[in-house]
Design brief:
The complex is a heterodimer of chains A (296) and B (565). With 296 residues, chain A is of the alpha/beta class. Chain A has helices at 3-6, 47-55, 76-80, 98-106, 114-123, 137-149, 167-183, 195-201, 219-225, 263-273, 285-295, and strands spanning 7-18, 21-32, 35-41, 62-67, 83-87, 155-159, 187-191, 204-209, 212-218, 227-237, 246-260, 276-282. Chain A has 2 domains: 3-219, 3-Layer(aba) Sandwich (Rossmann fold), CATH 3.40.50; 226-295, no CATH class. The longest helix of chain A has 17 residues, at 167-183. Chain B is mainly alpha-helical. Chain B has 3 domains: 1-223, no CATH class; 225-406, no CATH class; 408-565, no CATH class. Residues 223-239, 318-335, 401-410 and 458-468 of chain B have low confidence and may be disordered. Classes of the chains: A alpha/beta (296), B mainly alpha (565). The A-B interface holds A 52, 55-59, 73-81, 85, 87, 89-93, 95-97, 99-100, 103-104, 106-109, 131, 159 and B 225, 227, 243-247, 249-250, 252-254, 256-257, 260-261, 327, 331-336, 338-344, 494, 563-565.
């Protein structure tokens, strides 16, 4: 498999505005085959806009988006037939019965696996004769997950999938499914607010802030590089202190914590200013996210 | 600081404000478009005034604007369930909305009717219809609050608006109003006011009762789709065919989805409306001897009823597109359809085919009902020993008011039929295109085409396409340009492929060939008729036939623009 074929999603210099608001600013991203790609960012960071471009629901105003080497706007069937998609607000017709929903969706996907679909239906406890409108919110979310998985997509796109799923499904089933998909050599793009969830399953993380990619690397590298340090200043600080290589996270008075990529550099800077390092540990994804968000 | 009532009224006003420009545009736009249409045809101002001042013109306008206003208003207010969490008494919630809506409906009619009276010197009644509008809104809201604002409930609500008006008119004018609609709307007598007041009070009571039930978690469910009874199941089989075990193709699956989602609605509403019409007919037949013994009344009445039913079939579609179909304009919410691995053209065509299937089913139902009516009517006259009435009425119904059977199967008639079918199909196709492109209000424009055509036929029955007047200038230049632009843009954007262009071209050739050949064949069957069409009419017909192929490009293009914003 060539390098070109390895790239499932190629986004280059993607730019998108809504009126005067810049939703995506020159975003470039390559998602390679296999593994779980976590997409994190605050509200309005541009995650869903990026996903819509990948699904072909937005036409790039500038830049390009290619999925499996195909432009999703020009040839939606070729792209969408290889994607499984789950979103919080996926609109499933309420009048359909569960078995009708499966038959209907199956018609569009040549690779639909009926045995697997039935297995998932059993696992998700979805009664075949029941109408979607009479299912609980969690059951509807599970039905959406079933539809996204049953054709064994090459790319599984999950946009805030946890909303509506109960903790058991979220923690055990969803994580297991994501890992299985990834282990089979397929790709998962996973966007979520729940950073601990992303941290648990993702192999690589991209962080969006105000329409820009502020971070894009493997989770392993990220966690090994990013440290959280607690600093004690000689005099109380009224504002977050500026220290070379450190991004202030929180604190007050004399004690402040910061996230840093190069712990040695921060230690040297602290020493030169007479600041004492009183603690150091591996940073969680949430702490990295908080620090990067506040930095902008 | 707002009081709860003031806050609720403000919230209601905000809801209405969003749609107000479009309601006004539609209410004023349709009659003004009709007027412009006649002006382009070279009509004199005195002729226009004559048409505008005729009672049928006001009747049609009043009913049409009533439907549009009620549908819009119902759609704007949305489901009342979200208000239940507010710490306000149910009666306050209900009364605030209904009173505000009644004032809006009456105000809208007053403004538009007064404006049209000023512009066209139409002399239409203003106050009495405005009061009826307000009462009709209260009735509609009674259904909306009782049945949780379901879109199907909107249809039922619209049906409920007619009876009070009908009984009032009949009580005042007897059956005469059907063939002599010169009644005066302006008069509001004591009994009428009493009746309207009673209806309004009942509407308030029903709305509050329904909302209170719903609020305590026991909503009234009159849906046919509720599970459990054999009747419900059999009804469901009628309008919503059971899913086959496996679909043969993706397109068939999407068509099934479209039909189950919306396709059954028009046939069902048409069937209900036609049944009500027939029931009314038999009601008048038995209780008003004058009505029953006048063949011209029944003959002409049936013709009017048929035309009305065609319009009525279009109106529920209009209502449907404006209410529940609104979600299609929000495809960016990741509804199912935009994410299906289907081309834009295939998705658009599934929606269009659903429209055709709906219209065809409605026509079949109408024919069946018509046959039942004819058999029953003939039987009734035979029982009365008046077979002459039967023949006379049917003759008048089928062939006009000349009093004797005339075969008018000339090219003019065929052309009229072709233009009428063209208008219906084009309006349907372009309406879907408007909805698919995410601009619901645009759907109002093509939906007025059948209405335009009916007026056109009324005034120019013998020359539907008379080359040389203003109308033709528009047709000759605009339609080809519009068609070429739509196909060019759709091809350029990849919404359609060359196959679609070839299929559209083939459809046009087929239609054109039929249009030229059929008069020749008819002339062979009926000697003495001129088989040849004037060249100008052939050209005009060819251009008119570009319109029905327009949706081939317009619908996929609209969907493409909405799907890939």
């Amino acid at each position: 498999m060539s390098g070109q074929e390895q790239v499932v999603v190629a986004v280059h210099n993607l730019h998108r505005t809504f009126g005067t608001k810049v939703a995506l600013a020159n975003v470039s991203l390559d998602i390679r085959r296999g593994g779980v790609y976590g997409l994190v960012g605050g509200n309005g960071a541009g995650k869903t806009t990026l996903i819509r471009h990948i699904l072909g629901l937005f036409t790039p105003q500038a830049g390009s988006v290619m999925v499996f080497g195909i432009n999703p706007v020009v040839n939606p069937p070729a792209v969408l037939s290889r994607i499984g998609f789950l979103a919080e607000d996926r609109d499933i017709p309420g009048w359909m019965r569960v078995h009708e929903l499966l038959s209907y969706t199956r018609a569009f996907y040549p690779d639909w696996d009926p045995a697997f679909a039935e297995e998932l239906r059993d696992m998700f406890e979805l009664p075949p004769g029941q109408k979607v409108q009479s299912l609980s919110r969690g059951q509807i979310a599970r039905a959406g997950l079933l539809l996204a998985l049953a054709h064994r997509p090459e790319l599984l796109v999950l946009d805030e999938p946890s909303s509506g799923l109960d903790p058991v499904v979220r923690r055990d089933i969803l994580s297991a499914i994501i890992r299985t998909v990834a282990d089979e050599g397929r790709t998962v793009l996973f966007s979520s607010h729940l950073l601990d969830e992303v941290e648990r399953v993702a192999d690589r993380v991209a962080m969006l802030h105000a329409g820009r990619i502020v971070l894009d690397e493997s989770l392993e590298q990220l966690k090994s590089k990013q440290r959280i340090m607690t600093l004690r200043f000689a005099v109380p600080q009224s504002a977050p202190p500026i220290l070379t290589g450190a991004i202030p996270l929180n604190g007050a008075g004399k004690e402040w914590t910061c996230v840093c990529e190069d712990a040695e550099l921060v230690r040297m800077a602290a020493g030169s200013l007479g600041v004492e390092v009183i603690g150091e540990s591996a940073a969680s994804l949430e702490e990295i996210f908080m620090a990067r968000s506040s930095k902008g | 600081m707002f009081t709860p009532v003031a806050a609720l009224t403000w919230e209601n006003a905000q809801q209405v404000r969003r749609g107000l420009p479009w309601i006004l545009l539609t209410l004023l736009g349709i009659p003004l478009t009709v007027t412009a249409f006649f002006v382009l045809q070279g009509a004199k101002w005195s002729e226009l005034q004559e048409v505008a001042m005729s009672p049928p013109a006001q009747m049609i306008y009043t009913v049409l604007s009533l439907m549009i206003t009620l549908t819009w208003m119902g759609s704007l207010f949305g489901s009342p369930v979200r208000l239940f969490a507010l710490p306000v008494a149910t009666s306050t919630l209900v009364r605030t909305r209904i009173l505000f809506g009644m004032a809006c409906c009456a105000g809208l009619y007053l403004v538009t009717a007064l404006a049209l009276n000023l512009l066209l010197n139409a002399g239409w009644s203003v106050w009495s219809p405005a009061v009826h509008f307000a009462v009709a809104f209260a009735l509609q809201q009674a259904f909306a609050w009782t049945l949780r604002g379901r879109s199907n409930a909107q249809g039922l609500a619209l049906l409920m608006v007619g009876p009070p008006v009908l009984f009032w008119v009949t009580a005042r004018f007897g059956a005469e109003w059907i063939y002599n609609p010169q009644h005066r709307w302006e008069d509001l007598t004591g009994p009428q006011i009493l009746m309207l007041g009673t209806v309004t009070a009942l509407a308030f009571f029903a709305a509050e009762w329904g909302a209170a039930r719903d609020r305590r978690g026991a909503p009234l469910n009159l849906s046919l789709r509720s599970d459990g009874t054999a009747v419900a199941q059999s009804a469901e089989v009628f309008w919503a065919p059971v899913r086959p075990r496996a679909f043969k193709s993706a397109w068939l699956a999407q068509f099934w989805y479209e039909w189950r989602e919306d396709g059954w609605f028009i046939p069902a509403i048409t069937f209900i409306l036609a049944s009500i019409g027939l029931l009314l007919h038999f009601f008048f037949f038995f209780y008003y001897p004058t009505y029953a013994r006048m063949p011209e009344v029944i003959g002409e009445g049936l013709a009017i009823l048929s035309t009305g039913i065609v319009l009525q079939a279009a109106l529920p579609l209009f209502a449907r597109e404006y209410t529940s179909h609104g979600r299609r304009t929000r495809t960016q919410r990741f509804g199912m359809s935009p994410l299906l691995p289907m081309s834009d053209a295939a998705l658009a065509w599934a929606a269009l085919m659903r429209g055709i299937a709906s219209a065809a089913t409605a026509v079949v139902l109408m024919v069946l009902l018509g046959m039942i009516f004819v058999v029953v009517q003939l039987f009734l006259w035979r029982v009365e020993g008046r077979p002459d009435l039967a023949q006379d009425s049917l003759t008048r119904f089928m062939f006009g008011n000349q009093g004797r059977i005339q075969i008018r199967m000339t090219w003019e008639t065929l052309l009229q039929v072709a233009v009428f079918a063209t208008c219906l199909w084009t309006s349907l196709g372009l309406s879907y295109a408007a909805v698919l492109c995410g601009r619901r209000w645009l759907a109002a424009l093509p939906m007025s085409l059948p209405f335009l055509f009916v007026l056109f036929m009324v005034t120019r029955t013998n020359a539907p396409v008379a080359v040389g007047d203003g109308f033709d200038i528009i047709m000759l230049f605009m339609v080809p340009c519009w068609t070429m632009l739509a196909f060019g843009d759709a091809l350029y954007r990849g919404a359609i492929g060359w196959k679609s262009v070839v299929a559209a071209g083939f459809a046009w050739c087929l239609g054109f060939t039929l249009l030229v050949i059929v008069p020749v064949v008819v002339a062979e069957i009926l000697p003495g008729r001129n088989p040849l069409m004037p060249m100008s009419a052939v050209i005009a017909a060819g251009i008119v036939l570009l319109l029905p192929i327009l949706p081939f490009a317009a619908a996929p293009l609209a969907l493409h623009r909405n799907r890939h914003r």
